[in-house]
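Hi everyone,

Forwarding the result from last night's run.
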Amino acid sequence: MSNKQESLPSPALSSHFIGAWLRSQRFFLKSPLYMAYEDHVWQDFWVGLDSSVMLHEAAEFPLIPFEKARTDCFTYLENACGILGKGKPGWSPSKEASAEVTERLGSPPFNAYTIYLITTSTQENDDETVVYVGKTNSQSHRFRGGHAAISKLHAPEYEGMRKRIYFGCLIGINDDDNYVPIDWMVEENGRDKVLADIEHQLIFNLQPALNSEGKGKCLAEVRVPVHVQNLTDSGLSDFHFDEDQRIALE
């Protein structure tokens, strides 16, 4: 039996991917080493935007490097499996067993944020528009040392507008119907290429005003459906790109 649901992943699969395994009761989690080192054939991608701040607060937003996120998550899972008396995660544990894991280990660690969107809107926040799409491996904090898109937002046409930045986790669904957090992959197995392809698809479909490349022609080498879900309480619409690169707002 596969772990794939009838629809795309639930909000629980965002930053607390391990939390989804502990809470779901019917969620199958493959061995972390399978996620990190196997070659995957991708069927869908899901971007969960579960954090957002006003743009002037971006420099203080905590970002977790991929390697640290992966190490912390894998260590937590190894310890959880030890408590559960099993060699690898597999199906979700019972409620009682999950409660014991969190009681002994605390809350699961976060995944790394991989995709970010910068938006603008009027003060009424009824016309929020994506003006920049970017990716990050969180090795350095791009918003502390200056960012070209932020500088461009000082242009007169953006004066008085609300400027917000969203941070999202990227999760792939492979041909085995397994969910794979991209930051759990290692670079040599195509992690950075996957990230670049998703960034290119977002740029091509959203046509953000402040991105300079990839709007006239999609630069992604591999194109698959991408679903972006806003899990914050702001007004940004969810959107989905199908395999033919048509955008559908939800």
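Confidence is low (pLDDT under 50) at residues 1-12.

Cheers,
N.
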